Amino acid sequence: MRTIKMLMVLLLAASVTTSCSIFQGKKKAPAKKTASAKKPKKGDIQPYSKVITKEAKSDEGLFTVHQVDEKYFYEIPDSLFEREMLMVTRIAKTASGLGFGGGKQNTQTLRWQKKNKDVLLRVVSHQVVAADSLPVSIAVENSNFEPILYSFPIKAIKKDSVTNNTVIDVTDFFTKDVKAIGFQQRARRNYKVSRLDASRSYIDTLRSYPQNIESRHVKTYLSSDPPSNSSVQSISLEMSNSMILLPKEPMKRRYFDQRVGWFARGQQDYGLEDQKTKTVTYLDRWRLEVKDEDIAKFKAGELVVPKKQIVYYIDPATPVKWRKYIKQGIEDWQIAFEAAGFKEAIIAKDAPTKEENPEWSPEDVRYSTVRYLASPIPNANGPHVSDPRSGEILESDINWYHNVMTLLHNWFFIQTAAINPDARMNNFDDAVMGRLIRFVSAHEVGHTLGLPHNMGSSIAYPVEKLRDPEFTKKYGTAPSIMDYARFNYVAQPEDGDVALMPNIGPYDKYSIMWGYKPILDKTAKEEKSVLDSWILEKAGDPVYRFGRQQRGVIDYTSQTEDLGDDSMRASAYGIKNLKRIVPNLGKWTGEEGENYDELENMYGQLVGQFNRYMGHVT
Ligand SMILES: [Zn+2]
After folding, report:
1. How far is CA 498 from the centre of its chain?
2. Of the ranges 188-197, 226-235, 461-470, which one carries the lowest mean pLDDT score?
3. DSSP code at position 160
4. CB count, 10 Å around CB of 497?
5. Which is nearest to 579 in space by CA: 500, 497, 493, 499?
6. E-strand spans in 320-361?
7. Phi, psi (deg, nearest 5) at residue 312
8. Does residue 527 sit in helix, strand or coil?
9. Which of 153, 499, 524, 541 has its CA 20 to 30 A from that of 282?
10. How far apart are CA 570 and CA 575, in angstroms?
11. What string of DSSP letters covers 477-492?
12. Sheet strands (E) in 160-250
């Protein structure tokens, strides 16, 4: 079936090429003659050593990247033409007012193609598909003609016994205004961008790794309404583009079901039995597979180590005292993967030192990293990049901003200080802050495994049970660490030693099992009945319920920052605790020789928390 389709595609491609070359031949031939008469070498393919001179600085990887003076070249091996690659464009650095650095601008699937004396960069669409074996797939391909993003004249060709490499000049691609890899259109309109200023735009770095190429280029746009520094009438940005080789064989998909929370992606499928097109949606998830030699064990219910573990490296910039807590937060998920049949599925490691591995870099797509960023942003986030064809997560770097600790301090103080002497100070003990870091680390890692927020989780537990030391120690304060459940503000001083936060809970274990447990010997479509039966087993039990995050709260069972099955009752307990904190606020924030800034800050936090309590409904 596949070969028939391949033949058809070849025929199609052949006919396109023929008509193209006739057309080109007629038009181009005279122009070329005059050009060659004037200057024989201009624009023509040159000997390799003339283009990539002895002065070239070369970086081997997916493509070899050469820098010769101000020029950058890609040397593309023949084997990588026609392979699909994913290009992710982000703003790496930006002036204030433009939002967080690292914001994703664009994701595209690309294909490099050799055509006569040019190399074309084409955009592949995976939005509309039909299975290869169906006749309708030709029609889909015809109406899905891949646009050409850029055309590069071939500069040189390197031939030896094993390889055939093509050299192109990519300098203009990164320094000129190629919209698909630059500042997004919406932002251009917002800031009234008229054009790129080439004199203030340049390539910063271009690095090659075995499966990806990372480029950083600075772009300056003329703007009549810039978000900051309005006197310069321009915006400068450092853009980053990651180009990642997609696997030859896409991973088996797992189809999405609204009853379990997952980050998922959609695709229009024309090949289904239905009489209209249907959007199929499948999970973003890591490729966790059973090793061939372990299949019998796995089938017998024994835990097995996956073929390829999920490994997170800790950024060498992370303060040493916090590393172990971030690692614990990562490995806390092992227990959830055990529900999916795997042991040691996810592990944390220190990044190797320069001596151990000089090639190691967090930019290398083979290494997922928890990056520690010295930035005043009080946040952390866990973005990931996945294969549009299958949902396979290819790369994930968690960004950990230094000031996450400010956020944790303020919440923990205001939500627990009434019952918790550890929280009654401006600087917590390392062990206390470490526990909070572990909690946030686990939450962010949860996102990178495919799990979105489950705001409908905390409602599963009765409010009164959150005052019970035995219950909270066993079950945490919510069935999922992916809720915004924060800390236990319900417990009262007379309740004793209650747990203050959620752990990887029963919902987390269930959803990881649902998304990751291999269903052997079945196709993605055949899996659907098994997946459905797993959901039905838990039907009606609020512990296993998923409640999606809402923009404005309509469904009161999925509120943020709420606790227990009656959020107003929980808020009443929270307010009782705030009343205990108010008279002590001066004492708990005061320090010898300091002013009242901390008092002012924490008073603001307290009012904010009061508003949160008042905003909850039942
Ligand atoms: Zn989150």
Report:
1. 35
2. 226-235
3. -
4. 11
5. 493
6. 346-350
7. -110, 130
8. helix
9. 541
10. 9
11. SSS-TTS---S--S--
12. 164-169, 193-196, 202-208, 212-223, 234-245
The sign of the dihedral angle between the CA atoms of 134, 136, 137, 138 is positive
Task: Let me know: does 108 contact 186? Beta carbons within 8 Å.
Answer: no
Q: How far apart are CA 256 and CA 266, in angstroms?
A: 9
Q: How is the chain split into domains, by residue range?
A: 1-44, 45-245, 292-615
Reported as half-sphere exposure (CB side, CA atoms, 13 A), residue 182 has a value of 25
Structural contact between residues 216 and 101, judged by C-beta atoms closer than 8 angstroms: no
The CA 325 to ligand 1 mean position distance, Å, reads 18
Residues 6+ apart with CB under 8 A from 365: 209, 211, 212, 242, 244, 394, 395
Q: How many A from CA of 381 to the centre of ligand 1? A: 7
| DSSP code for 270 | S
Ligand 1: centre distance to CA 249 (Å): 31
- 551-556 long-range CB contacts below 8 Å, 24 or more apart? 553/617, 555/456, 556/617, 556/618
How far is the centre of ligand 1, averaged over its atoms, from the C-alpha of 446 (Å)? Answer: 8
Measured in Å, residue 444 CA sits from the centre of ligand 1 at 6
CA distances from 50 to 46, 77, 153 (A): 7, 19, 16
Cα-to-centroid distance, 404 and ligand 1 (Å): 13
Kind and range of the H or E element at 611? helix 597-615
Residue showing tokens 């537990």: 461
Instruction: State how far the alpha carbon of 289 is from the alpha carbons of 386, 390, 551, in Å.
Output: 17, 14, 36
Q: Is 83 left (phi over 0), alpha (psi -120 to 50) or beta?
A: beta
Kindly give the distance from the C-alpha atom of residue 142 to the centroid of ligand 1, in angstroms, as a whole number: 41
Beta-ladder partners of 86: 109, 244
**If we measure between CA atoms, which residue out of 501, 499, 471 comes closest to residue 483?**
501
Q: Do residues 238 and 216 lie in contact, with contact meaning Cβ atoms separated by under 8 Å?
A: yes
Q: How far is the CA of 460 from the centre of ligand 1 (A)?
A: 19
Cα–Cα distance, 21 to 11 (Å, whole number) = 15
Please choose, from the candidates 227, 226, 286, 280, the residue with its C-alpha nearest in 3D space to the C-alpha of residue 257.
Answer: 280
User: 451: CA distance to ligand 1 center in Å?
Assistant: 9
User: pLDDT, tens digit, for every residue of 114-165?
Assistant: 999 999 999 987 765 555 555 555 555 656 678 899 999 999 999 877 889 9
CA 103 to the chain's CA centroid: 10
Tokens in use for 314? 């800790």
Distance in angstroms (rounded) separating the CA atoms of residues 38 and 60:
37
The Å distance, Cα 453 to ligand 1 centre, comes to 6
- Per-residue pLDDT tens digits for 381-412: 877 889 999 999 998 988 888 888 999 999 99
Q: Where do the DSSP E strands lie in 379-452?
A: 380-381, 384-386, 393-401
Q: How far is the CA of 102 from the centre of ligand 1 (A)?
A: 17
Q: What confidence score (pLDDT) does residue 362 get? A: 82
State the ipTM, two decimals: 0.99
For residue 230, give Cα distances in angstroms to 200, 218, 238, 301, 476. 17, 19, 18, 64, 50
